[in-house]
Amino acid sequence: MNTLFDTSWRGVSASVDQTLALGSVLGKLVRPGDMIGLIGELGAGKTHLVRGIAQGMGLTDAPVTSPTFVMVQEYGGSAFSVPNGPEAHSTRSIPTEPALIHIDAYRLKSLEDLESIGWDLDAEELRQGAVVVVEWADRLADLLGQDLTIQLHHESESKRGLSVSAADSWTSRIGGLIENFEKALQSNNIKSNPKSE
Predict the structure, then answer these.
(1) Strand partners, 134
(2) In the predicted model, is pLDDT for residue 99 greater than 50?
(3) Which among 7, 56, 182, 195 is least buried, having the fewest CB atoms inside 10 angstroms?
(4) Does the pLDDT of residue 84 top 70, yes or no?
(5) CA 161, CA 154: separation in Å to the nearest integer?
(6) CA dihedral (151, 5, 124, 176) positive or negative
(7) What is the end-to-end Cα distance of the chain in Å, rounded?
(8) 135-155: pLDDT as tens digits
(9) What is the DSSP code (8-state) at residue 16?
């Protein structure tokens, strides 16, 4: 299981468009197997961030909505089949493009709750060939083992504060993420607040 480092970056989004832009930056850096946890109160911009991630992943036609009532949405992803086993009587799917699995954990108390809606996979199986983004990730504590956690909060009526914590699996990517987050914010003259401790 990944251990999260201290907060690596803090910034402020001044608009929905800016939150989408930050999500798009993240979507361009994700890899199959990534688990991203989003934490924040209602209206903090979690779903807008997921929409941006989908755009950055190239899922421009994905109608990303909050999966509050269905709990899980899956967008995109494609696969091809290859023979499985020495006798090749069965096949297995190999992902060619990762799917985006969007989970709303607001009403979940355990991974078993996902089974009640047909997702009978453990966290490792859920990650295979997919990027998994979990809203209200704090409700499942460390059961999912997030690689990246983003906390969002209201700074004002229109501004949202964001802070990012990364696990060791993001060591090689966190610098690029921070740099591109900075560029996205600077393009709109919004100052970020990197952690200085």
Answers:
(1) 37, 103
(2) yes
(3) 195
(4) no
(5) 6
(6) positive
(7) 25
(8) 988 887 666 677 899 999 999
(9) H
**Nearest CA to 21 among 63, 55, 59, 60?**
55
**Burial readout 135-147 (b: 16 or more C-beta within 10 A, e: otherwise):** bbbebbeebbbbb
The two tokens of residue 137 are 């990730």
User: What element of type H or E holds 180?
Assistant: helix 174-186
Buried b or exposed e, range 53-83, using 16+ CB within 10 angstroms? bbbbbebeebebeebeeebbbebbbeeeeee
**Residue owning tokens 């911009």:** 45
Cα 98 to chain centroid distance, Å, stands at: 13
Closest-CA residue to 136 (of 152, 158, 155):
152
Say which amino acid occupies 29: L
Residue tagged 């989408």 (tokens): 20
Phi and psi for 29 in degrees, rounded to 5? -105, -10
Q: In the predicted model, what is the mean pLDDT of residues 175-189?
A: 86
**Topology annotation, domain 4-186:** Rossmann fold (3.40.50)
pLDDT classification of 80: cutoffs 50, 70, 90:
very low
pTM score, whole prediction = 0.77
Domain spans of the chain?
A: 4-186
pLDDT greater at residue 116 or residue 78: 116
Q: What are phi and psi of 7, to 5 degrees?
A: -55, 130
